[in-house]
Design a protein that fits this description.
Layout (H helix, E strand, L loop, with lengths): L3 H15 L9 E8 L2 E4 L6 E3 L4 E4 L2 E5 L4 E7 L2 E5 L4 E7 L2 E18 L9 E5 L4 E4 L3 E10 L2 E10 L1 E5 L4 E7 L3 E7 L4 E8 L2 E9 L5 E6 L4 E8 L5 E9 L5 E10 L3
Parallel strand pairs: 9-10
Antiparallel strand pairs: 1-4, 1-6, 2-3, 2-5, 5-8, 6-7, 7-9, 8-9, 9-12, 10-11, 11-14, 12-13, 13-16, 14-15, 15-18, 16-17, 17-20, 18-19, 20-21, 21-22
Length: 266
């Protein structure tokens, strides 16, 4: 049976021969494996088609996989993304930048495998969820999962190999998840509550715009089962929120708390 890499290269040659990717302003991603069924909505939202193996689709397309289905797509040779059953995601360029690809994951999980050379050529890949943004910074294997837990939306971030940072644009950043590290970040529907939980590994969390008693930027070293609970509410009519952070040990004790102002998230 033809392996995925050979199939991808042959598909590229076919697309070049047909003139499909001759123009740089028309980038495509390629479905190289499909078990079951999936639906693909066009970038303008005016058309929904059945996804097909060995087909190319434009960035901005939204994918929905059916129950019991799974697919794998490439955005470049050796840049492999495997999408789980019952997943909903959009694959796009970031602000029109063809060298920065974004996966907007609303539901389900995605596994990413990147070559050792990734991160050396200026290309970027981010996975956006309701609670955080994940960005691999080196070649390796990563997975991101999104699911509901009552009123909270949970995003799980895992690095099997390589290095990945996870962040919110205004509230926090985990500079590096490595060596089988894993974290779960929950968020409420109104985005007023965010909870970080360390599942595995020693993970550093930078709390943006917050300072400790000595005036240093607030950084928290976490171990498995430790948590940060963060609340934010709109402060007046501007774009600032009042934020409060609790740092909780694995045995449930509160070790630190801080209140400060932070810009409202989009």
């Amino acid at each position: 049976m033809m392996n995925k890499r050979v199939r991808f290269v042959l598909l590229l040659l076919l697309c070049v021969g047909c003139g499909v990717i001759a123009m740089a302003f028309e980038p495509l991603f390629f479905i190289v494996e499909l078990e079951g069924t999936c639906k693909i909505r066009s970038p303008k939202g005016d058309k929904v088609v059945d996804g097909k193996r060995a087909r190319a689709y434009p960035y901005g397309s939204r994918i929905t996989t059916a129950a019991g289905s799974e697919l794998t797509f490439y955005i470049a040779e050796d840049h492999e993304f495997t999408v789980s059953t019952n997943a909903i995601l959009t694959i796009a360029d970031h602000a029109g930048n063809p060298d920065w690809k974004v996966v907007k994951l609303d539901q389900g999980s995605i596994m990413i495998e990147l070559p050792d050379t990734f991160g050396q050529d200026g290309r970027r890949i981010t996975v956006e969820t309701a609670s955080a943004i994940a960005e691999p910074v080196a070649g390796g294997k990563y997975d991101v999962k999104v699911q509901m837990d009552q009123d909270l939306k949970l995003s799980e971030f895992h690095t099997a190999s390589g290095e990945m940072k996870v962040y919110d644009n205004h509230l926090f950043e985990i500079p590096a998840i490595t060596d089988d590290g894993r974290a779960v970040i929950a968020i409420s529907k109104d985005k007023g509550f965010v909870r970080f939980r360390n599942i595995k590994g020693k993970l550093l969390v930078d709390v943006k715009n917050a300072f400790d008693d000595l005036g240093n930027p607030m950084t928290v070293q976490t171990s498995p089962d430790s948590m940060l609970k963060m609340w934010r509410t709109k402060a007046g009519s501007g774009d600032l929120w009042a934020a409060t952070v609790f740092v909780i040990t694995p045995d449930g004790n509160l070790t630190n708390s801080v209140s400060y102002s932070v810009k409202a998230s989009n």
